[in-house]
Amino acid sequence: MILLRSSLRRLGSTRDPSLACHQCLLHRNRPLSPSAVRTFFSSARLQSGIADDQSSSAILQKTYFSANKSIDGSPGKDGFIPSLSAANASLAHTTNASKNEGQAGPISADSELPHRRRKRLKEESAANNEAENVIPPDASAQLSHLSSTLPKSSLRRKMAAFLALTKPRLSVLIVLSTTSAYGMYPISSLLALDPSMTPLPTLSTSTLTFLYLTAGTFLSSCSANTLNMMFEPKYDALMSRTRNRPIVRGLVSRRGALLFAVATAATGLALLYFGTNPTVTALSASNIFLYAFVYTPLKRIHVINTWVGAIVGGIPPLMGWVAAAGQTATTGHDTWRDMLFSEDSIGGWLLGGVLFAWQFPHFNALSHTIREEYKRAGYKMLCWVNPARNARVALRYSVLMFPISIGLWWVGVVGHGFLVSSTVANGWLVKEAYHFWQHQGANGTARGLFWASIWQLPILLVGGLVTKKGLWDGVWRKAFGQPEEDEDDYLYYDDEDVEEAQVSSPPNNVTVPRPVNSA
Predict the structure, then answer these.
(1) What local confidence, expressed as pLDDT, does residue 27 receive?
(2) Mind telling me which residue stretches traverse the membrane in this protein (predicted)?
(3) Which residues have a Cβ under 8 Å from the Cβ of 373 and sit 6 or more positions away?
């Protein structure tokens, strides 16, 4: 070993060990004793303390123990100490990795230590799982991004920013639930047989009422959503899901948002008042108040805010039902008590129950994916206050969808086909909610439940419209040849007809005196 080091000193610097004499290297090609190996490594450590970092690392380079090179750099024919070469090569990689750990240059996969590789793969796997659970940005964030890319003086920029205040997808969903309930309201078959007997709304007036209801509901929802954004921009800035909202980004001022909220509320409520009835208008106004002035501040106080938000979501179907009931006021639906608390209002309450129960699997899955952000922003949500209860509540209200759907069929709002469509949609939702509860939102179950809720509700509402009670009776009779009911079977008498019938057909053995004309 001493001979080897002396040869290296004579022939060249330790910075270029390839200049070593071939004869000297082959002289040490016999197996080394354990004591000699320990002497070699202790000498190397001693020299590394004296020489600079580059010199000491060069001694342990793989080229020192690989095939010898000539002075011009060409490789030799034979290798040098094959058994010791592999061991010292790994030592060289370890030394270089530890020294380069704090440097900017990346470490190759070959030189990465096993425990570091396992740690890196685990972190990458966790990052991929989080990326899979992230809910895509909502329409407000997309519109805000579009508005920020347009020139400041552009009209499209302002329109996109104000449209972002309305939460377009949420507003459209509210309109869908309202108009679906309006379309599912049953019309009495007796009244439909002879429209001349009662002033039922004609096609033109029904269409006009439908348009008033749609526009008024959308504008009222826009007002509530705008007020919600106006009250909490400071907290929206702390969350990735809401940090791109227009007020947070300065695309719309708080004063401008307030004026927009007042204008949309006034216009929407006016359309509902003149186009439907005062009861619908009162329901819409109460919904704006609950969402903006009760639900919004309650989010930072108690987890009961989720239940208040569910009530807000259940009111729009009731609005659609009452709007349809107001068109048949001659049947007795002439007061708000009759429209809301009569036997015929059960269908509207059941449809409101569908939206109430749907809020929990939908929102609990959504909030689970950003629970840390809710916690950092100070929002009291079950997703981080009590994650186990968050999953139980989502499963509980998903199961509740079954009896509510059966109730709609039981009271005669929908036909037998609705039992099939609702069972499929509700079964899918319950399956995803069970996985969400079983895994506590992990393994992508939160994302699965979220998307199941997104599709389940439209399937349920559109299925109710398609299978409305009595909608396909005429088609069924024509398809299977069943005779249609004859209008002559329904006879209507006035008081004079009843008296004449009693006179013309007296009971047996009874003589009925006929009236004598005064003339």
Answers:
(1) 52
(2) 170-188, 208-231, 252-274, 280-298, 305-326, 346-366, 399-429, 449-467
(3) 238, 239, 240, 241
* Residues 190 and 490 sit within 8 Å (Cβ to Cβ): yes
Query: Which domains does the chain carry?
Result: 2-101 (no CATH), 139-187+199-341 (1.10.357.140), 344-470 (1.20.120)
SS3 per residue for 404-473: HHHHHHHCCCECCHHHHHHHHHHHHHHHHHHHHHHHCCCCCHHHHHHHHHHHHHHHHHHHHHHCECCCCH
Tens digit of each residue's pLDDT (9 = 90 or more) over 347-393: 999 999 999 999 999 999 999 999 999 999 999 999 999 999 999 99
The amino acid sitting at 292 is: A
Radius of gyration of the chain (CA): 40
Q: Which residues touch 263 (CB under 8 Å, ≥6 apart)?
A: none
Confidence of residue 218 (pLDDT cuts 50, 70, 90): very high
Exposed/middle/buried for 444, CB within 10 Å: 0-12, 13-18, 19+? middle
Q: Which two tokens stand for residue 201?
A: 């709304």
Contact 229, 247 (CB under 8 A): yes
Cβ 334 vs Cβ 322: under 8 Å = no
Give the Cα separation of 429 and 401 in Å (integer): 9
Instruction: Read off the DSSP letter of residue 201.
Output: -
Please answer whether residues 265 and 223 qualify as being in contact, where contact means their C-beta atoms are separated by less than 8 angstroms: yes
Q: Distance between CA 424 and CA 436 in Å, rounded?
A: 19
Which residue blocks in 28-72 are alpha helix, DSSP H? Answer: 34-50, 53-59, 62-65
Token pair recorded at residue 262: 């007042």
**Contact (Cβ atoms closer than 8 angstroms) between residue 383 and residue 301:** no
> What's the pLDDT score for residue 14?
46
* Neighbouring C-alpha atoms within 13 Å toward the C-beta of 285: 13
pTM for this entry: 0.68
- Decide if 350 contacts 411 (C-beta within 8 A): yes
Among 426, 367, 365, CA closest to 398: 426
CA–CA dist 295, 456 (Å, integer): 25
Those residues whose C-beta lies under 8 Å from the C-beta of residue 467, and which sit 6 or more positions away, are 414, 415, 416, 417, 418, 421
Question: What's the mean pLDDT when you consider all of the chain?
Answer: 76
**pLDDT score of 107 more than 90:** no
Reported as a pLDDT band with limits 50, 70 and 90, residue 207 is: confident
